[in-house]
Design a protein that fits this description.
Two copies of one chain form a homodimer. The first copy, chain A, has 707 residues and is α/β, with parallel strands linked by helices. Chain A is 37% helix and 21% strand.
Chain lengths: 707, 707
């Protein structure tokens, strides 16, 4: 959890149900012209059969679009459940104040000219929010394109996009920060005949955030799947609560967060802990909750579409039925690339199928060949074998244009229906080139249709990711770590290591020495060779000023090194407070890792793990996770990086002590979580992961304490 | 060039023009039933208005589908230009023999039961091929679904896919090894209203290969773009000739080669040189010719579709015009990920646009905001600024559903047409949600329409890759390297290094020593520390048996090491011929690289470059290229790997001597090319790339010589 001030409604149910289904709605700035911003919602609600009371507010007209109009909010004959505010910014603040005072439950503010414009606008937005909160009124916007609910015809939006058609009612909820993109999304969905339950566009998010919008859809019994679009997450708690609730309710969330390229710039920063760009943190948060992150509108709707089948395999496997060997290979390529397993069919089942069609290749992909065109019953035999004997959680049937051919499609449909009827628990996807009407028939039978098999594989893979997250049992609790009080300012390396050691984070054996003789004695005690490091709270990046000497041997070597370091420190930073020299045992033979913590302004402390050297510096091969977490999560993180084979014993190397590393990572996350907002960052670099059983030790540690 | 026996037509024009446009066609096995394999082509040609003479051959009927039929090939009243063979395998061989003897130019053999079945079938196929070649007749198939040409109605195919519609004539040629996948491709293309010039499906490729088919489309003046599908390349020369001709003619080739996942298994092999799997070699060959490799049918047709605009920017840049800031970011993410530059608009142009729309964000993406809905002339101003002032080679305009709204679309169209008329040389892509009719209007205006902006970006990026390849000037010739005669069998390390040194490939200074005293003296001369290695033609993998000692110092150390190595060799391989011990200067301070050559069965020797250690072993970060090539290509290869920053001086490291490394790589490629087919592989591992000016040296070398 972030330790930023929580929003008043975090954790609690969203309280937004009324926003989507009010009994009455006032329209402040109502227009008689159905093409104007204040006229459109009324026209849309009329057209779409909204049954509640519409109360137009317009000082200049007694009637608006056939409805009795009222001159002011004060003049309304009843307190509206909710209100649409479609007047210029200055008037909008006043309208919200009046609506809130009268006890309206929520306002949808179309008006622009607030925080998205300038500081004056931001101040006005703040006043509007204060007025609403003062009376417990919720606020969608300002600068929001509004929302709509296809089930009750409540179209509280001024989107001009309905001239070519209306959204089709269905079970996908859309939550978007952007009105333009939200409109794009539901327009494309309509073209694909995907049904929408409701769509909420949050605009400036003065109050209602994308998290609240998602939460309201989790609570909506008519929404099965949530498609969300975000440009930036400004507040963590409502999003975390929503994603937790979605997982608990087994409602998949597919989210597009634009601005991935920010990662590029973040990664370019020199400090290793800064590799955690905001976008990478969001990625980590989404992964935590099993949210699938879409990279294109198309992918987003592919995933949402398939998710409406509500089959989310906890252990996904793919069986492929195909009439083209080539397409089978194409599908296998895509599945392997995503890590979606395609286990082989049992040998006896393969033999049976080969008896039916001698030249069939029934391994999986199960190629039943064009022979099915002559004998459609073969489809049933092959499909039954794949589902019953193969036991696949997901089945992708590639029938290309034959699935759209009038001479064959009805027979295919009959065969597939029979198989599905016997095994309704599987996820069935059909890749055919067919007319929209034929596609609808297949969809009605329970088959999701994707013309492109590669896209089908990606969507099937996503269903497994949802299923995995839904099935995940609560993991280990974060380890109990003694609370450690941070010092007032950034501590020296030795002090940092003392703090970490107190939290059970193992550091390389070392001693702080004030004189060359002490250093020589310490080296003797620790065992040669040793590392010498200048010790000063004022010198953070020691190696850059030559403040670290490696591989120092012999008493004379240690004495000479001591003198060298003091001399360099004096020349580099004449005013630095020198606390002496750290003499540490030089660790060897392990794998160098980097563990770090960085404070994300929205999500709080985030732990980073990566391998030292080129992996972090050149390849940016790191994994992030919000603090705190347990050792099981830590181990999963460690195993997830691309360089993990190095730790697991690639090419005859001894496997590293991963349990010790996981223990350190989990403890670090608890340490950072408990340290509070003054902790700016932690950098353990390098950490030596020694061979299994020998532990993991931080050889250097920097803790940055902020103001 | 491969040194496998070249096909008789490699390099020469394909000679296949007649296959696609014959004046007469015999159909051996002609059927009166238009739904049977021997009946379909006749029915299709009738239906599609083929103007040539159709000569049915059927021993049992005097008339077939209204045409006079002949009882045998011998009975044909004239020599047909080409023939379709649609009889069972045994009869097919005889038919081909007779057709060839009569002087038919080419045969299209539908019949299956040949090499795809078993060894007997393969022998029959060989006989059929011999009969054809004996009379200079070309052969498409056997086991081919045939071909069609939309311009003359020549449908020499038994595809059953036309009941839902016919391919639309156009300028995309389709070449596919698979009939099922070829059918899928032209069926999807038809659904997308993409026009096809011809489609050739090569089947078993006894004679006509996918390369020949591509070549015929390069020569076809009515084909602008070639979409090809391959499952495996069995013959290099015809493909290389076709791709060279395509590049020369500025005709883009987009190719899907399935079986990428084979790379995974190849990469798992332990020998580094084996990392070059067949699929990775094909990838390298395609890159060489600027072929874009598609990973899905959809991507393939996206690229082919946009390529029909025939704008291939040599230096691609993207300007984005958008009505949604979010979509602008989404597009920027996609462009950055692909490496497609989106330079900023000039400041003065930005200022002018901000005068027009104060809240516009004209940096690029150029967000003209929903304000354009009120004033469509703004589209023209913003588009003109992007094209004229921004100077972008490619322009992507995102207008989502507004581009399909009857109230706005005609105005948008007018504005965009005017801009394009002034600057017809740019690549224009429109991302709109619109009806098929509206899309056709935009397409007629010269705008390629993609509903999904992410897919649009990928296709635009591909146009730049074509443009780059088309604009590429001939590079440096491969360096002149003295020809070196390979020994009869795999040489020892010292001998291998002598061969390489003779070719100008620098190896670490070293001496071969027969006695411990010689070794001590050699170490003295080379300078300590040294590396000692057992020297035996019978021990290839020295380090695995402890046959390499690093960091050996002092005369006594060298003597002891010498004894250790001889002892280990005797115990490990009692029968190995021991030639002594190699004493080499131990190189330090450089970047460890791996250079290798592996022999691809189709494309001949292929050079590999990668960084040592984890980069090759864990990350498979290698680049491949057919031998031979010049130093410019070598340098491009070196700079292309993910780990390249390590060589270029990441994090304060000195930059490595890349010219020396490039010289070594180019020379290695010439060495391998000249060595002939007996060279099985070369492995230089490690090669030390020292700091710039200090050279690059192979510290170990293995040359494997085959039978």
């Amino acid at each position: 959890m972030s330790d930023a001030a929580p929003s008043p409604t975090a954790g609690a149910p969203s309280g937004l149900a009324r926003l989507l289904a009010p009994c009455s709605v006032a329209v402040v700035g109502a227009s008689n012209d159905p093409t104007r911003i204040g006229g459109r919602p009324i026209a849309y609600m009329h057209r779409q059969g909204y049954k509640g009371t519409i109360l137009p507010v317009n000082p200049n007209r007694a009637e608006v679009q056939g409805l009795h109009a009222f001159p002011s909010v004060a003049a309304l004959p009843e307190v509206p459940d909710i209100a649409i505010v479609a007047v210029p910014a200055a008037a909008a603040v006043q309208a919200v104040e009046e609506l809130a005072a009268r006890g309206t439950a929520a306002a949808i503010v179309f008006s622009a000219g607030f925080a998205e414009m300038d500081a004056t606008g931001a101040a006005a937005q703040q006043r509007m929010l204060a007025a609403a909160r003062g009376h417990g009124m919720r606020l969608l916007g300002p600068n929001s394109l509004g929302l709509f609910n296809t089930r009750n015809g409540f179209y509280a939006t001024f989107s001009a996009s309905f001239e070519t058609g209306w959204p089709i009612p269905g079970r996908i909820g859309i939550a978007s920060q952007s009105g333009a993109y939200g409109t794009h999304l539901f327009s494309v969905a309509r073209g694909r005949r995907l049904g929408i339950s409701s769509c909420v566009m949050t605009g400036n998010e003065a109050d209602v955030t994308i998290g609240h919008a998602i939460r309201s859809m989790v609570e909506d019994p008519d929404t099965d799947v949530i498609a969300a679009y975000a440009e930036g997450i400004k507040e963590a708690d409502s999003l975390l609560a929503a994603l937790g609730a979605a997982r608990g309710a087994r409602k998949p969330v597919v989210l597009m967060k634009v601005g991935r390229s920010a990662l590029g710039s973040a990664a370019a920063r020199s400090h290793t802990a800064s590799i955690a760009g905001d976008d990478a943190v969001i990625d980590a948060v989404l992964g935590e909750f099993g949210v699938v992150r879409a990279r294109s509108t198309e992918e987003m709707l592919d995933v949402a579409h398939l998710a409406t089948r509500r089959v989310y395999p906890a252990r996904n496997t793919l069986g492929v039925l195909t009439v083209s060997g080539g397409a089978g290979v194409l599908i296998s390529d895509a599945a392997e690339e995503l890590g979606l397993p395609m286990p082989e069919m049992p040998q006896d089942a393969q033999a049976r199928l080969r008896e039916l069609v001698p030249f069939a290749a029934p391994r999986n992909p199960v190629d039943c060949t064009a022979q099915v065109l002559n004998d459609p019953s073969l489809v049933g035999h092959f499909a039954e074998a794949a589902v019953q004997n193969g036991g696949y959680a997901s089945v992708l049937a590639f029938f290309t244009q034959t699935g759209g051919a009038p001479s064959f499609a009805p027979k295919l449909r009959e065969q597939l229906r029979a198989t599905r009827a016997k095994h309704p628990d599987r996820l069935y996807v059909l890749s055919v080139v067919a007319s929209p009407e034929q596609v609808q028939d297949y969809e009605r039978d329970g088959f999701a249709v994707f013309e492109d098999p590669t896209r089908a594989v990606a969507a099937i893979h996503a269903m497994g990711r949802f299923g995995e997250a839904f099935a995940r049992r609560p993991g280990l609790p974060p380890p109990a770590v003694p609370a450690v009080a941070l010092p007032d300012a950034t501590p020296s390396e030795a002090e940092a290591k003392r703090l970490l050691s107190a939290a059970g984070i193992a550091c390389a054996p070392e001693r702080t020495c004030a004189t060359a003789e002490e250093a020589a004695a310490a080296a003797e005690a620790l065992g040669h060779p040793v590392v010498l490091k200048i010790l000063s709270p004022d010198i953070l990046h020691k190696s850059e000023m030559g403040g670290v000497l490696l591989d120092v041997r012999g008493a004379d070597g240690v004495r000479a090194g001591f003198a060298t370091l003091l001399d360099r420190a004096r020349r580099h930073a004449p005013d630095a407070r020198i606390e002496g020299v750290l003499v540490a045992k030089q660790l060897k033979g392990g794998v160098e890792c980097i563990l770090g913590v960085n404070r994300d302004p929205v999500f709080g402390p985030v732990t980073m793990f990566g391998l030292g050297g080129v992996f972090v510096e050149v390849l940016k091969d790191v994994v992030l996770r919000r603090c705190p977490f347990g050792e099981d999560v830590a181990e999963t993180m460690i195993r997830s990086i691309r360089g993990a084979p190095l730790l697991l014993g690639a090419r005859g190397r001894p496997p590293a002590d991963i349990p010790a590393l996981a223990r350190m990572l989990a403890r670090l996350s608890v340490f950072a979580h408990q340290a509070g907002p003054r902790l700016a960052s932690i950098d353990l670099n390098p950490v030596f992961a020694l061979p299994r059983g020998e532990g993991a030790f931080a050889a250097d540690a920097v803790i940055e304490v902020g103001g």
